[in-house]
Amino acid sequence: MKVRLTSLLLTIISLTAQGQQAPSPEERAKRLFDLSDRNRDDKLTREELPERLRPNFDRVDANKDGFISRAEHLAVMSRQTPSRPSPENARRPLLEGIEAKLDLPYADTENPRQRLDLYLPKLRKTDKPLPVVVFIHGGGWRNGDKATGANNVGRYVTSGEYAGVSIGYRLTGEARWPAQIHDCKAAIRWIKAHAQEYNLNPEKIGVWGSSAGGHLVSMLGTSGDVKELEGTLGKHLDQNSKVACVANYYGPENFLTMIRQPSQIDRTKGAEYPEALLLGGAVPEREETAREASPVTHVSAGDAPFFTAHGTEDPLVPFAQGEEVHEALKKAGVPSILQQMTHGGHGFRSELLDQRLKQFFDKYLRGIESEIDSSPITVETRQKK
C-alpha cells in the first residue's frame, strides 16, 4: 500500500514539474479509493482502510451497512479536502529568490494533512541560522490549505532574513480536538529537529495565523508548558513545542465566553457551528473540552509575546475575544499588543498593519529593539468565509 501511494504522489509531482495540470481533489480522492479497494468490489471494509483511519469508519459509513461506498468516501473527502490553488497561482510570488520544499511529513504518517511547506531564501543576508515565520491557515478548522500560507511567509523569506513554513493540520471532517493542536505542535518539533539541516534558529520561531489559525497559534503561544496538549506524534518528542512569539489575527480565545457574545453565528442552538464540530458537541455540553481548547485557559508568566490584530466589527469572532486574551496576557506579565482594526470585519488588509507586524517579528525573532505603535488602524472590512 505504501509503495502504491508513494507512486501516486510521485506521479502528481512529476505532472506538476512538467507543467501539466495536477489531479483535482476529486480525482485524487477517486484514486485513493481505488488504491484502498484491494479486492476491487467498489466498496471498502474496515480492514481495507489504513489503521490510522479505521476509527473514522463508522462516521464515513453513512448508511451503516458495514461498508464505505465510493459515494460516501467522496462525500467526506470533498468536505475535508478543499480545492488547492493551482501551482501557478499559489507559488507565483515565490518563484524568484525562494527555494520551496513542499509537503514534508512532520508526523511520521502518510496523512496528506500532516505535511508542511518549507521556504528558504536563495540569497541569505547572513550565514547565521535564520529565524522562522510559521503560518497556520484558517477556515473554521474544517476548510483551508497550507498552500495559502505561501504568500504570507513569502514576503519575509524574500528579504533573505527569514525562513518560512506553512503548516497543514487535520480538519474536523477527519478528527476532533485535540488533534489540531497535536499536529501543530508536532510540526514545531519537526522544525526544531531539522534546524541544523536547514540552518534555522530553533529558538527563534514565530507563529502567525488567522481565524482558526489564530486560535491555533494562540494555543501554541500559551500551552508550550502544558504536557497534556503535547501529543505523541512524530519522531521528535525530545524537542519542545515552545515558540518565540505569536501573531494572532482574529482568532477565538475563549470558547466559553464567545457563545454569549454577539455574532452572526447562532451558537445557542444545535451543534453544527465550527467550534462545536471542533469540540465534538455544543460548547455548553463540552465545557471541559472547551476550556482546555481555549488559549486564555493556559496563559501564564513566561508565555510568548503576542501581537493580536482584531476588527471591531468582526461578525464571526467578536472583538471582545482579542481584548480578553490581551488582558489575560498583560495580567500575567506577558508582552502583548492589541492592534484594533477599526471597522474591520473577519478579515482586512492594511499596509500599516503589515509594517507593524514586520516590526514585531523583527523585535522578537531578530533582536531589533523598537517601540511598536499600536494606535487603532481604520480599514474597510473584507469578509473572510
Element pattern in H and E: HHEHEHHEEEHEHHEHEHHHEHEHE
Count of helical stretches: 14
- The residue fraction in helices comes out at 25-40%
The CATH topology of the largest domain: Rossmann fold
CATH class of the largest domain: Alpha Beta
Shape: globular
Percentage beta strand: 15-25%
> What is the oligomer described by this structure?
single chain
Radius of gyration over C-alpha positions, nearest whole angstrom: 21 Å
Q: What is the number of independent domains?
A: 2
- Extended strand count: 11
Could you state the CATH homologous superfamily of the largest domain? Alpha/Beta hydrolase fold, catalytic domain
Structural class: alpha/beta
Protein name: Acetyl esterase/lipase
Pfam families: BD-FAE
InterPro entries: AB_hydrolase_fold, BD-FAE-like_dom, EF-hand-dom_pair, EF_Hand_1_Ca_BS, EF_hand_dom, GDXG_lipolytic_enzyme
GO molecular function: calcium ion binding; hydrolase activity
Commentary on this structure:
The chain is an alpha/beta fold and 385 residues long. The protein folds into 2 domains: 2-80, EF-hand (Recoverin, domain 1, Orthogonal Bundle); 87-378, Rossmann fold (3-Layer(aba) Sandwich). Helix content is 34%, strand content 16%. The chain contains 14 helices and 11 strands. A 9-stranded mixed sheet has the order 3-4-6-5-7-8-9-10-11, with helices on both faces. It has a two-stranded antiparallel sheet with strand order 1-2. It starts with a helix and ends in a 7-residue tail after the last strand. Mean pLDDT is 86; it is low at 1-22 and 81-93.
